[in-house]
Write the structure tokens for this entry.
Amino acid sequence: MLQETVRRFAVDRLLPGVEEWFESAEFPSEIATELGQLGLLGMHLQGYGCAGVNAVGYGLACLELEAADSGFRSFVSVQGSLAMFPISAYGSEEQKEEWLPRMASGEVIGCFGLTEPDAGSDPSRMRTNARKDGSDWVLSGTKMWITNGSIAGLAIVWAVTDQGVRGFLVPAGTPGFHTRDIKRKLSLRASVTSELHLDECRVPGEALLPGVSGLKGPLSCLNEARFGVVWGAMGAARACYESALEYAKSRTQFERPIASFQLTQQKLVDMMLEIQKGLLVALHLGRMKDASQLAVEQVSFAKLNNVREALEVARKARTILGASGITLEYPVIRHMNNLESVLTYEGTSEIHTLILGEALTGLRAFT
Ligand code: TGC
Ligand code: FAD
């Protein structure tokens, strides 16, 4: 029922506008409250206005949203898993009460500032720092490639302190906090990506997330978001496959539908196999997550496999559409370009390969 509801919302509300939003590089921010009304923001969290559905339910919603466009799944991932999750898991009671209900409804949009210009795959090299000044904290530094940055009412900013890496809640409008959008993207165009600038930005002591210190704070949030990507990537792949199948049946060359050629059928069958395998991996992972049995390496396994295969499906679909495959009249090249970002964010395919390599061999190959 949940999947059907999200699919209907995607078909009725998202698909009619998505080509225009992608082309004009615009995220329709009014969608935030509609996603909130559907209960999709922070949907896997408990209490404070959150829907409290299980991991499989969250995954299915991500699948249907990304079948429309990765930008919508990204929005929900960042809001629920990267902005609300740390407040829910590591926040004080006051922080939860102040922010979570308004974020669940979509009234307040959140963003997650971990990546920096010189610290992407290796966030341990982050330079953004926070120093204690009386009871306040003063933050300085730059965050880069931050989804929802300029439309967020609240930024979760990770910074180095004398107690290691800590998380801070920085409301938009705090003096010293500015954002600048990253333009000319050819991927994730229906999504806002920004830089965050913190210039002696002063926040009160209560802005610190009290429940976690060290890199495991932000990295644990990534687990939640990566889980959503595992499902979402298969949604994008499904949309490409469906578009290619329909096109192949109606497009005639050499006096036959191109779907009747064995080479086209081979592509369609390979696409279908990878989508079904990827969905089974996602479902298995969801059930393990619901049983609290999911290991970090298993999330890497699925993120690496499902995004890599989704991109391959998109590329095969693109070839079936011939020249039509390069226009926005069909969803394929939009998904294909989006998936290039998905391959990179939430841990690049190389980083997930190295996480798995370490799990197999016991040897770290990052440095
Ligand atoms: P390492 O020494 O391995 O770990 C430091 C501490 O963190 C713990 N840990 C984790 N905890 C929970 N979940 C995970 N996935 C964890 N990975 C590590 C670890 O146990 C340790 O804890 P403790 O208690 O011993 O201190 O850290 P490292 O510096 O060697 O880094 C390892 C590496 C390379 C795997 C990590 O840095 C990494 O995953 N890098 C990739 C960075 C990344 O994914 N960035 C994503 C930014 S956000 C984003 O892309 C949002 S896109 C938004 C959208 O969907 O639109
Ligand atoms: P780099 O880390 O510089 O990597 C460049 C290349 O080198 C990659 O191929 C990488 O795999 C490879 N590489 C790096 N280290 C190794 C190694 N040890 N061995 C082998 N190869 C290696 N970040 C946030 O914090 N919040 C967000 O909301 C957010 N949203 C994003 C939205 C979009 C659209 C994009 C594109 C990115 C977003 N990111 C966000 C940033 C994203 O997480 C980073 O881009 C990603 O972690 C990689 O960092 P980087 O781009 O600096 O690449």
Residues 216-250 form the longest helix (35 residues). The two ends are 47 Å apart (CA to CA).
